Amino acid sequence: MDMLKDFEKDLNKCSKCGLCESACPLFKINPNDCVASKGKFIMLHGVTKGDLKLSKNINKYLDMCLKCGKCNAYCPSGIDVCRILNTAKYEYMKTTLLGRFIKFLESRLVFGTFMNFGKFISAPFRPKKKKVENPVARVMYFKGCLNQICPRTDKYIEKIFKDLPLEIIEPDFECCGLPFLSEGNLERFIEVAQSNVEKINGDYDYFVTDCASCESTIFDYPRYLNNIHLPLEKSVNWGYLIALKKIRFQFKKPIKVTFHKPCHLQVDSYIERIFENCENVEYVKMEDYDACCGFAGSFGIKNRKYSKELSKQKAININKTQADYVVTTCPACILGLKQGLALTGEKTKVVSLLEFLAKADNISL
Ligand code: SF4
Ligand code: SF4
Q: For a pLDDT cut of 90, what percent of the chain falls above it?
């Protein structure tokens, strides 16, 4: 397991240019030096040199981060910000009682049993698996945790792909590991990553995810695990596949829709193509459509004030579009968007892309 000391060279590479501050959405609403990666690195460098203790106060700033990676993209020194922050969190949590308790909650025994129970309870509400004759494609489906428990997604997929029979393979994947990674539980993260990688191998045409955060976490596995093969060339998400297959959606009543891009969604060029294939749907691009929804996993619980402020700004931008629906591709973002709309009293409905498309009155090729 890497330790913070192993990143001393990277911490040294920080030129204090401050470009990360201009990219950081949190720094915009809380211009405290320790919020952006520059300030965090100064503190962590102090820790690696032995001048500072990895204290509760430093941990407060480790938690004050959306893990959106926007600073990563701007950093001219190419420093892997999220990896350093996750390692610092790991080192801090190892020393605390709370850290040990969180590890217990996230263990296979507790978290794994909870997920299995959720899958068991939701199983009768899912469409029955039928043998697919002459499938147009074999799809390996990595279902995010929320969609594992909520049976509706399966129904949306069945409806959207009714004319394109897919053979869907669903091994018993574990959580992608993002919640463990962000809470500094690197051992559990590695455990689920290894287990998932073993199940990813097989004969299929597409590896499909339904959550932007799961997708980006899986693509990050090679940064933490050596010598693994991921089917990157076959990896898509449901939206990409819908655009690729040119599925058409007809809505009887005119609808105005806008899109929120989750921070972890790498590619979103297919979104506009999908809406172009929707009859009676007007797509309005919102201002800062890729700005964070403010939820960001445990950030939304630990930093209520800033979480609400970011969500509120998002809701104001949604409202400017006058859209009936705001569509996104991450279950956690749905919570952030709902939080903002509840704070501003707006009535725009928040739905996943699959739920929105499944509302169409007619779906054809
Ligand atoms: S952008 Fe990179 S090099 Fe510049 S201050 Fe931020 S972390 Fe340091
Ligand atoms: S990951 Fe996002 S929130 Fe965290 S320091 Fe970088 S830009 Fe700011």
A: 78
